[in-house]
Amino acid sequence: MTSRTSILPQRRLLAVAAALFVSGLSAGTASAEDAPAPTGSTTTSTSTTREAPVAVCPLGSFVCAPRPINFNMCRPNAMLDFYDPTITKDTTLRDTAVTNTNSISVESPEPNVYHMQGGVRLERADQLLRADDVHYNSDTTAYDAKGNVRYQEAGMLLSADHLSGTTTPNQGEADNVRYQLLESRGNGIAAHGTLLDPMHSRMLRATYSTCDVGAHMWEFRGKDIYLNKDTGVGTARSATMRFKNIPFMYLPYFTFPLDDRRKSGVLYPTFGSSSNSGMYLGVPYYFNLAPNYDATVEPRYYSDRGFMAAGEFRYLFPRTNGSIDLEYMPHDKGPDEDISGTSDRDGSKQRYLLKFANSTAIAPGWSLLTGINRASDNQYFRDFSNDLFGAATGILSSSMYLYGNGKYWSASIGADAYQNVDAGLPNYVAPYKRWPRATFGYNYPINKWLTAGISTEAVAFRKTDKAPGQIDGNRLDLYPYLSADFGGPSWFVRPKLSYRYTAYQLDNDYAQVGYTQRDPTRSLPIASVDAGLIFDRQTNLFGSSYTQTLEPRLYYLYVPYRNQNNQPLFDTNQMSFDFWQLFTTNRFSGADRQMDANNITAAVTTRLLDDTGVERVSASVGQIRYLTDQRVQLPGVPVTDYSGSDYIAQFSVQLNDRWRMNTSYQWNPNTNKQGVFDEQGNVVYQGHDTDLATVQVQRRIKGDGILNFSYRYRRNVMEQFDTSVVYPVSERWRALARWVFARRDVLPNQYGQQVFTFSHRTLEAAAGVEYDSCCVAFRLLGRHYVRDYTRSTTNAIMFEVEFKGLGSLSPQTGTYLRRAILGYQ
Fold it and tell me: Do 400 and 417 touch, CB atoms closer than 8 A?
């Protein structure tokens, strides 16, 4: 028989009925917080092209962003075999399109009743239905399709042995269903499916997975799966989660999202172990309370310490947003290991950690920012640092500030508080509380080259646990200035004149701690001139053209001497000497010390810029020449009598995107180096020595792999090697490792004069593996690390698994690795 084409009535035809049925199956799964992005590029094309490779993190990035979920490991054509790529994906054409039918034969035994047989094909816009045998009644809108039923639309594919129902009302029944969601890769089977209406459907004895069709590494199976597109939530009863067809989780009632909307439900557990808390398990539950606020409650169990309740509440309103995190253990059954005699638990069994962050817009230009972080004791992070990086926390800071700003001004008023949480240090190491603190800054451009301004700060310093010689007090710091900026494309001259006035009001017991005045003051002028030239030329190197620059620079600074020995040290320390310090007005942080200076800095920099302006090579060298001795020093440090600072050299090179190198070097040209002490507290005299040296090399290996090596040396302080690698063993496997080895590691005692020296020891070692496949990824990581100031060590192990499209069990390892291995994604 010859084929015959006919046009059926346009109103709610069989293709529409099938479309309404399968629209109820468009379910995806994700965690409550992370819905998978559409990945249609791997499932809507029959070509062998996979998704575009994930962009690698640029070399030199301090922390790389997490890699997005991708399905690059999946088979390019892993879909139901009847997919037709020539069908349009424009769903807006349905309302006006007619239904074209093809079949080997068509009969109409009575009016408005059609019976099509043999290769039946019904096509309307993006909808295509194929079957061996189809009955359709245009009066009752009843349809019946059987024999190799296949349906396709822009969002999904579906096949069944039998499909029947009506289009008015929109109801349908299907037997032996196979389906695939083209936008979210979700696919599965069901023994029977029922369309209740266009937004609600039910499947019996059904499965769901984002793995390749016919090759499910993981899937969940439900006796009864109900899909509600109105709420975006799917419900499975008597559900089991399976890996390699082995059930590992059973839930009598299980919900999952059908789209990007958040929903309440159980999130996936975290588990691992550490030396201080034993094995632990946490099972969080997410509450979608409202569109603009939600909560997560997580009961945890530590085998060595007991039960803990943790929770997070997040909120977002038009003028304020923030979060509250709380961890609370009512009874810690573990010991209080006060190894260094610094614990402040005092036998308490109650342990907690509070974190509160809030940002509120009060008025135009004014905002209130709050961050509160508080632990029950200074041993908390040692005992509960299960996330592999919490143990590195030494100080918890809390603050609340009201900020304001205008066209030329800025202001703030608030308070800062600090808590020591390093288990190996006494609490007096915590900085002073700044309670309260106020700042005001004004920067007014008088004309295009002249600017006037002022920086002010008023602080009340308070401390509960004081070290010997410490005292509470208030400080006012006023810093007006006048600066000019002259220059052109190849030169600049920037003179600046400042005046600094600092006043104190100390507590009444100032004399008992060695101060002769309760209200000492300091005032002095500060003058500087910064000038430089910029030469450039075209050059060729390694067969490529570059722009080479030569940038000599001179900086003169004059600050008269003022005796500041009667001023306390509230928030001031000497900053590390580096290239930036060659051009600064003060080598001390904070306002308690202002250095005296009659200095000239000479430096030169050369760069190679490629044709796009990217800096490929940079080299700098410079030194400060002291025309007079530096008399202002921290307590216990004598006046310097040398004529020049260390020579500082820096060099960096990155000729392509596969490797880069940075190095810095400081050499002491002087005959002695004062202020350094040996183990008996005696001054050590040194000369013509290396004070600091660093080398860092980064190399991309095999696509997304990375190799890092760094060497850090500071005289009489440390000498360390830090090596890390992410090595792609194969397309699916990556090996991870980091090793930090100290040839010398020096710790000053509480008085800062004697030293404790550790040598030839491992400070940190981590090793693990990653596996990535089409729909499953996992990571196993172990870590040995220093847990506190005493250099005592501990061990931790973490396992993380990710069912792509369903969520991750534990994201902590990824966070740690992005911080520990530069370039890791």
Answer: no
Our separate counts of H helices and E strands in the chain read 3, 45
Could you tell me which residues come within 8 angstroms of residue 219 by beta carbon, excluding any fewer than 6 positions away?
A: 188, 207, 208, 209, 211, 242
Task: Name residue 622's beta-bridge partners.
Answer: 603, 648
755-772 pLDDT, tens digit per residue, is: 456 667 888 899 999 998
Name the residue among 819, 745, 807, 743 with its Cα closest to residue 781: 819
Count CB neighbours of 18 within 10 A.
30
pLDDT in tens, 520-539: 999 999 999 999 999 999 99
Task: Please report the pLDDT score of residue 61 as a whole number.
Answer: 78
Residue 520 contacts by C-beta under 8 Å, 6 or more apart in sequence?
Answer: 503, 504, 506, 566, 567
Burial class (CB in 10 A: 0-12, 13-18, 19+), 543: exposed
Q: Report the pLDDT averaged over residues 242-247.
A: 88
Interval 210-218 mean pLDDT: 86
CA distance 738 to 743: 16
Backbone angles phi, psi at 252, to 5 degrees: -65, -25
Asked if residue 244 lies in contact with residue 217, where contact means CB atoms within 8 angstroms, the answer is yes
Residue with tokens 């796009």: 612
Predicted structure pTM score: 0.78
Least confident of 81-85, 448-452, 803-807: 803-807
- The span from the CA of 161 to the CA of 174, in Å, is 7
DSSP conformational letter for 35: P
pLDDT digits (tens, 9 = 90+) for 665-691: 999 988 665 555 555 556 555 667 889
Peptide bond into 480 cis (omega under 30): no
Write b or e for each residue in 568-589: b if 16 or more Cβ atoms lie within 10 A of its Cβ, otherwise e.
Answer: bbbebeeeebebebbeebbbbe
CB-based contacts of 258, cutoff 8 Å, min separation 6 = 26, 27, 28, 227, 228, 229, 232, 233, 234
Contact 127, 18 (CB under 8 A): yes
Q: Is 770 exposed, middle or buried (0-12, 13-18, 19+ CB in 10 A)?
A: buried
* CA gap 328, 354 in Å, rounded: 9
Segment 32-79, tens digit of pLDDT: 333 333 333 333 333 333 444 556 778 877 777 777 666 777 776 556
CB-based contacts of 288, cutoff 8 Å, min separation 6: 32, 262, 263, 264, 294
Q: How confident is the model at residue 157 (pLDDT cuts 50, 70, 90)?
A: confident
Collapsed DSSP state (helix, strand, coil) of residue 817? helix
Tens digits of per-residue pLDDT, 606-637?
Answer: 999 998 888 999 999 999 999 999 999 998 88
Q: Residue 767's closest CA among 731, 803, 727, 812?
A: 727
3-state secondary structure of 686: coil
> Closest Cα partner for 821 from 725, 701, 696, 721?
725
